[in-house]
Design a protein that fits this description.
alpha+beta
Length: 77
């Protein structure tokens, strides 16, 4: 798995890691998935599927660009 030069991997590799990371946030917050650190794009989360002992998180639709402040908090700027 590649790393972006400016960002560090967060260590979320299991469903348990993801649940632990999400517990500090308000459960009513909207959720978006950010990709492409050099030109960050935002996607809504779509279907979830388990295959070959991996949980796959699908995208639903593009939601435009990630705001600069959010990209900074992700460590991408």
């Amino acid at each position: 798995m590649g790393r972006h030069r400016r960002g560090k991997m967060q260590g979320i590799e299991t469903v348990g890691d993801l649940i632990d990371a999400l517990e500090r946030f308000d459960p009513d917050l909207e959720v978006r998935f950010a990709v492409q650190p050099r030109m960050p794009m935002s996607y809504t989360i779509g279907p979830l599927a388990e295959f070959d002992y991996i949980l796959w998180i699908g995208e639903a639709k593009s939601d435009g660009y990630v705001p600069d402040d959010a990209a900074t908090r992700l460590g991408w700027r």
